[in-house]
Amino acid sequence: MRVLAVASEAYPLVKTGGLADVVGALPAALAGEGIAVTTLLPGYPAVLRAIGEAPAVLTLPDRFGPARLRRAQVGALDLLALEAPHLFDRPGNPYAAPEGGDWPDNGERFAALGLAAAEAATALGVQAVHAHDWQAGLAGAYLRHLAPRPIPTVFTIHNLAFQGQFPPALFPRLGLPAAAWSTAGVEYFGSVGFLKAGLWYADRITTVSPSYAAEIRTPAGGMGLDGLLRGRAGVVSGILNGLDDAAWDPATDPALAARFTAAAPEARAANKAALQARFGLVPDPAAPLFAFVGRLAWQKGMDLVLAALPTLLEIGGQLAILGTGEPGLEAQCRGAAAAHPGRVGAAIGFDEALARLCYGGADAVLVPSRFEPCGLAQLCALRYGAPPVVARTGGLADTVIDANEMALAAGCATGLQFAPGDAAMLAGALRHAAALIGDAALWARIRGNAMRCDVSWRRSAARYAALFREVAMAGSSVIA
């Protein structure tokens, strides 16, 4: 079966978050299920460099300016690049201008991606389209209204908070029929809603964990779209993200100071020492070393970590912070490191090799998100033997087994959960974690459980494959 995946980023070509990891890894996992995936990406400079002199395979309608599709094999990806230099030949972040703020023509840029998806799906003769997040949200609209044959779509929500809303003046530029400008179409509270369109026109809707699939159908978690999602509940499901467990393997990872396995984890001590050195922390093998890796943002709960810092220091802990995000939180992280030298270290920026050392050297990884569709940090932490301390929400709740009394008695704990998601409960979880870490034999069992978890794509790829076959057999049955 042939599927066209449509997304705005894919690792290793371009990455701003977990979306790229999923789009980059899932095609290889699906190949084992008999699903051949072609991935359509915007022709950013990094993408065009990767494909070199790949031939053009399709010239696209000149609705958003001249554009064509070029095809190449890049690693495991069968790649289609949307070559439209006036839209995508820009430096830095794929969504934001260097001087700050989103690119003002993001509506046209990602509408062009949706139109290209419909044209490519038709030309390639695929049996289904898999669209990811708001940037691919118009693919379903173009397929529904302009494609010469029905092609079913699966739309995956990676984060409902990012919705892609644009002024109504964009609608005439899209080339969709007037009927599409309605609540039964792309209109969303008077604007053009890319994510809303993706949800409306999809034959099946998935999100990246079962718990998040339930949370987004509530007013508290639905970000204004809960009514639509409740109305479409029969086609909504949650499929957990996974990791490429060959690329994320502590037994072979060159970013680590020393490689190790679940059966022979002793070399983690060398990674802990290396991590302490990188962050300027006191070289103390006995100190509980916590790491935070990710966006410094309200959603990710970085402010909760800073609020719980007095408890972390009181229990003799150390903290390594790696990430970039909101300027205020970046400044507070730098301030915490300056105020507590040897106990707190902060590296502001994105450094994947250093992130891998954090996972491979920390005693535990903090993931205190206020909401989390799935999360990859806790999966990496499990894989690398740093039992995660997570808020009980979304995919975090689905992937980490809390070290409560019954789980400890049963010998199945893989980390710690806390709820509600506030600083006081996080502080309590830190105390609990420090006590467990202090019992070396017990923590070694928890760490071993974590490392033996199957965090790969195997189970989830099978579920996606079944879903694609189901929609292909049923045909396109979107809401008219």
TrEMBL record:
SUPFAM superfamilies: UDP-Glycosyltransferase/glycogen phosphorylase. The keyword DNA repair does not apply. Pathway: Glycan biosynthesis; glycogen biosynthesis. Its EC number is 2.4.1.21. One of its GO terms (cellular component) is cytosol. Synthesizes alpha-1,4-glucan chains using ADP-glucose. This is Glycogen synthase. The gene is glgA.
